[in-house]
Amino acid sequence: MLKIRLARGGAKKRPFYSIVVADSHSPRDGRFIEKVGTYDPLLAKDHADRLRVKGERVQEWLGKGAQPTDRVARLLSAQGLTKWENSSNPKKGEPGKKAKERQEERTQREADRAAALEEAKSAPAAVEEPAAEEPVAAEPAAEAPAAEEPPAAEEPPTAEA
Questions:
Q1: Other beta carbons less than 10 A from residue 59's beta carbon
Q2: What are the chain's domains?
Q3: pLDDT tens digits, 26-81
Q4: Cα–Cα distance, 83 to 123 (Å, whole number)
Q5: Per-residue pLDDT, 27
Q6: C-alpha 140: how far from chain center
Q7: For the purposes of burial, counting CB atoms within 10 Å of the CB of 50, is it exposed (0-12), middle (13-18) or buried (19 or more)?
Q8: Edge-to-edge strands of the sheet including 67-68?
Q9: What are the Cα distances from residue 73, in Å, to 30, 86, 140?
């Protein structure tokens, strides 16, 4: 399949693109069939040399079935050579399959936790019965330390003058 696409040239941090017709399987900056224009993104948007295109050659390649990439179609539509429509991808912002599974697990855990809290709040009597047995066993232990320790004598207040 033939593509009309950008081939990058220029130095580091100084991009310059050639608009080329190439096989879709060839590398981005590799072999191409024909150079049909140039694009210099560093020039001002209203500058005449920002985009230079051989219009009749582009029309000929489009007639032969060459497909422009999205960026090239946008540039060519500014020249009036092709019609470019903003592509719509409704699933773009949608989370992936793994993220959906993790979210379902998280909501399930939160629901289980909330159900456990509600169950604990609604059944306090079952919790109080074992607690009532524990103080009976704990009473002798609570009295034993009090019997061993003598009561603390309170010191009378002293007046310092």
A1: 14
A2: 2-79 (3.30.1320.10)
A3: 888 888 899 999 999 999 988 989 999 998 999 999 999 999 998 999 999 888 88
A4: 69
A5: 85
A6: 62
A7: middle
A8: 51-53, 34-39, 14-23, 2-11, 67-68
A9: 21, 10, 90
Q: SS3 for the chain, per residue? A: CEEEEEEEEEECCEEEEEEEEEECCCCCCCCCCEEEEEECCCCCCCCCCCEEECHHHHHHHHHCCCEECHHHHHHHHHHCCCCCCCCCCCCCCCCCHHHHHHHHHHHHHHHHHHHHHHHHHHCHHHHHHHHHHHHHHHHHHHHHHHHHCCCCCCCCCCCCC
Task: Report the length, in residues, of the chain.
Answer: 161
Both tokens of 19, joined, read 């608009």
For the purposes of burial, counting CB atoms within 10 Å of the CB of 159, is it exposed (0-12), middle (13-18) or buried (19 or more)?
exposed
CA distance 98 to 96: 6
